[in-house]
Amino acid sequence: MMDTTLAPTLPVPAADRAPAPAGAAQHAVADARTYVVRTLGCQMNVHDSEHMAGMLEQAGYVPASAADAARGSADVLVINTCAVRENAADKLYGNLGQLAGVKRGRPGMQIAVGGCLAQKDRAGIVDRAPWVDVVFGTHNLDALPVLLERARHNERAQVEIAESLQVFPSTLPTRRESVYAGWVSISVGCNNTCTFCIVPHLRGKERDRRPGEVLAEVQALVDQGAIEVTLLGQNVNSYGVEFGDRGAFAKLLRACGDVQGLERVRFTSPHPAAFTDDVIEAMAATANVMPQLHMPLQSGSDRVLRAMRRSYRSERFLGILDRVRAAMPDAAITTDIIVGFPGETEDDFAETLRVVEASRFVSAYTFQYSQRPGTPAADLPDQLPKAVVQERYERLQALQERISLEENRAQAGRRVEVLVADTEGRKDGASLRVSGRAADNRLVHFALPPAVQGLAAGAGAHAVGHPSDARLEEHPHPLLPRPGDLVTVEVTHGAPHHLVADSALAGGIYAVRRTRAGDAWAQRARARAGLGGDDHGHGHGSGQGSAAGSGAAGGPVVLGLPAVRTR
Ligand code: SF4
Fold it and tell me: Locate the Radical SAM core domain: which residues (predicted)?
């Protein structure tokens, strides 16, 4: 279960598409149309945007320049919407209002709106914003290039929404955001009926991909340089029910353990009702499955869980955490919680505080309930006054902040292996640190040894990908890690939302392990900086596919899997 209500704050940020690589202009056909995909919402949307970008590039579009991307100006601007965020519609129409002016100043520009809100509002989007050219839904991502073409040709807006899934998104061309880590969908849709959630209505019933297909995509990613994969589904624990194997998810985790070169496997999201011990056993027994679990609680009150139509109860939830910790003592567990569900009493809320205190979450994505049109809970009586919800929310946040701080402070002195990221540390330049994720997915900011401080773009001197960034060199300084490399450091202190590991400053623990992922990052960064090489990392595929548009920096990775039509 994706619990998309909560997903906007999950670790991977929804962000504008990556700006155009510096080398793109050299390769692009002179009159190629440019595009930007703007993403709102959860990981599923971020991954869908990777498919949208891949399809556009396969159709001959090239990424817009960084300046155009920032302005929202391109020949084609795609907004991948979210329907579960509070004020999602207001936000979309506000965005579209601004874009009307941009479009007036850029003849031929097209605006496409996809994702959950498009699936929900359909032609209503064009009624409210007639300057929108294309509306497409969650079930027909593959139609985007054709709809753009048709809208241009017919000079009128195209609205096409499918009622059920046409093509598994995973089989579409994909332009991956990251070379060292990738998302792999194992299922789409959800069979649950949580009363606050609109996902089942917009994404449909759960459809599972076959394990062989999932593993082929995992292998292809690894062959292209990735060392981390996150398996994605709205409810990963029900994976396999469609093809009659209730143990399929545990088996899939174990099979990932056999993929050579795959160092880190994560998944999101499980559902407490369907989370079985075979999954815990598979996690503990599979060396590359990371000691991390995102387990959505939503409420600690059994009465509220019943009203939410979530079939587990608080004691079962706590029992799962106990068993996970017994099997993986270092597991970091995070959660989602909704405060102020209709009818929630002070006693119900006290139950949530009790369960949160007992759960010792490393972090929690906490949300104030708000009515989402189209969900059953929106029509429930006893909607709570905003002030009541706000006050409870603040109390919950204060409790969780204290627990997060205690849990992270307890990490001091621990040795962690950090997968270096290229997007996580906004203050790295000023703090002269580099950032990444520990095995348990905690965010770690760590100091470089004095000898190499300032050499990396993220830790000082330059913009990332600047040609003088020393990490782009063929043989970088052995102490200088690149995104995708693994660095072992010792935690020196914990803050509520991250760890700091400055062991290198005093000559303490600091070891860089070069990885294929780091090589792939450097290769792509060199291409983007116009220093040669191709942009696809280790783009040999697994015999399944090669990078489409080879030679075009920023081109899509085509997995070459057959585009399986669903029933
Ligand atoms: S219906 Fe429930 S389980 Fe399914 S996506 Fe929504 S919150 Fe998750």
Answer: 176-406
